[in-house]
Design brief:
Blueprint: E1 4-8, E2 15-19, H1 27-37, H2 41-53, H3 57-69, H4 71-74, H5 82-106, H6 110-130, H7 135-147, H8 151-168, H9 173-185, H10 189-202, H11 208-220
Helix pairs in contact: 2-3, 2-5, 3-5, 5-6, 5-7, 6-7, 7-8, 7-9, 8-9, 9-10, 10-11
Length: about 220
């Protein structure tokens, strides 16, 4: 894996390398570069995700919010691949939505919870209007329904993702974890255990909560 992101200088064949360990803390410095060169939408998404990995959620949000507010400008880029542009828009919206879902889970103030829920539904709606059968959006729906206490709905979306992605790419880790949670709450310890074990096999360096899930299932069998 590379440790930098390449940004092409507009109207030239030159590139600017931005190394991960040199990301500016003041995100406006990076946004000035992105506004000037207007790289493809997926480059904005890469910068946002790397900020998130570095623990800087504020900069992650700033980049994605600006990107999502300016979809129409990206649509005017020369040599635009419509399919790639659709995928990039969905990835941006899903990333924003996933962040709001985490806020929804962590928030304790009920008034704020309702406001966050409105944002989740807003971005899910935007994604559905672009493509109603994108598995990334279905996965967000599964996570949100689980967070909102609607286990049956969560299982429906998680199962839908699992069936679709198994045909095309293999296991979807988030959807498999949602399935494990729904099975656990339904007291299907054996089924939940298998889901957790499948995740551990596919991703041995996964979050410790997966091993906790395995332990809880074993304790009840």
């Amino acid at each position: 894996d590379t440790s930098y992101i390449m940004v092409q200088v507009r109207n030239t064949d030159k590139f600017v390398q931005v190394f991960y360990d040199e990301f500016p803390q003041d995100v406006d410095e990076l946004l000035d570069l992105l506004r000037a060169e207007v790289p493809p939408l997926n480059i904005w998404h890469k910068f946002a995700v790397e900020y998130y990995r570095q623990g800087n959620k504020s900069n992650f949000r700033r980049i994605l919010e600006e990107a999502s507010d300016n979809f129409s400008e990206f649509a005017e880029q020369p040599d635009l691949d419509p399919k790639e542009f659709e995928k990039s828009r969905l990835e941006v919206l899903n990333a924003i939505c996933a962040d709001f879902i985490l806020q929804f889970i962590e928030e304790k103030d009920q008034d704020h919870v309702e406001k966050i829920k409105e944002q989740v539904l807003k971005y899910l709606g935007q994604a559905d209007r672009i493509n109603a059968v994108f598995t990334g959006t279905w996965c967000c729906k599964a996570l949100f329904e689980m967070a909102d206490g609607k286990a049956d709905n969560a299982k429906y979306w998680a199962d839908t993702v699992a069936k679709q992605e198994k045909k095309e790419f293999g296991m979807n880790i988030p959807a498999t974890l949602v399935r494990a949670c729904t099975m656990f709450h339904a007291k299907d310890w054996e089924g939940a255990l298998k889901q957790y074990e499948d995740v551990l096999k596919a991703q041995p360096n996964c979050n410790a909560s997966v091993r906790v899930g395995i332990g809880l299932c074993c304790a009840r069998l």
